[in-house]
Amino acid sequence: MLSFDIRTLSQGAVQVEGDLSAADPVWLEDDARPVSHVHVTGRLSGAGSGRYYFSGAFTGTAAGECRRCLVPVESAVSGQAHFLYADADDENADEPDVFPLGDSGTTLDLRPALREQWLLEAPALPLCRPDCKGFCPTCGADLNAGPCACILS
Ligand SMILES: [Zn+2]
Ligand SMILES: [Zn+2]
After folding, report:
1. Cross-strand partners of 73
2. What is the pLDDT of residue 103?
3. CB 25 within 8 A of CB 38
4. Residues that place a CB less than 5 A from ion ligand 1
5. Among 20-29, 45-54, 73-82, 110-119, where is mean pLDDT lowest?
6. Which of 3, 22, 87, 151 could form a cystine bridge with 109, CB 3.0-4.6 A?
7. Using CA atoms, how far apart are residues 132 and 38, in angstroms rounded to an integer?
C-alpha cells in the first residue's frame, strides 16, 4: 500500500512497505519502468502542521533496451527516497522538492514521488555490455555478430 489517509498519521509514524507495480497507472508511456515492480520500504511521519515526511529506500530492476543494439537490458536500480509533503496552501508548497498532498488534503500518495525518484536512478541509456558495437550505420548489420562487408569496401 503506497497511499495513506493522513488522518491515521496523527497517531504517530507509519512503517511503509509496498510495491509499485510496473502496470500502475502512475507510469507514463516513455518511462523506464521496472520489470515487475519497485519495492519500497521506509517510514512516514508528521513534520509539523500540514506537513509529512517520508524517508526510505527502494529497489527494483529496470527494463530497457541497449542504446546501441536495441536488445532488452535489465538494470538493477536502488536508491534513497526522502519526500516532503505539504498542503497546497503551505508557504513552501511551490518548492521543487515539496510534493503536494492529494486533492482532498487527506490523502498522501507516495507513487508520483517514487516514480520521479526511480526515473532519476534508472539508467536512461543502458548498454547491453560496455563494449557493445551496435549496428553498422551503413548496412545495419549487428556488428556484435562480426564485421560486415562495409569494412572491406
Ligand atoms: Zn548492445
Ligand atoms: Zn555495414
Report:
1. 64
2. 65
3. no
4. 66, 68-69, 128, 132
5. 45-54
6. 3
7. 28
Cα–Cα separations (whole angstroms), residue 27 to 65, 78, 111, 121: 18, 18, 9, 15
Strands 37-46 and 3-5, bridge-based pairing: unpaired
pLDDT band at 153 (very low <50, low <70, confident <90, very high): low
CA–centroid distance for 80 within its chain: 11
End-to-end CA distance of the chain: 60
pLDDT given at position 124: 85
C-alpha triplet 29, 31, 35: angle, nearest 5°: 105
Predicted TM-score (pTM) of this structure: 0.84
Plot region of 105 (φ>0 → left; ψ -120 to 50 → alpha; else → beta): left
Ligand 2 centroid – CA 75 distance (Å): 29
Residue 143 alpha carbon to ligand 2 centre in Å: 8
9 residue type, one letter: L
Question: Considering every ligand atom, which ligand is closest to the CA of 141?
Answer: 2
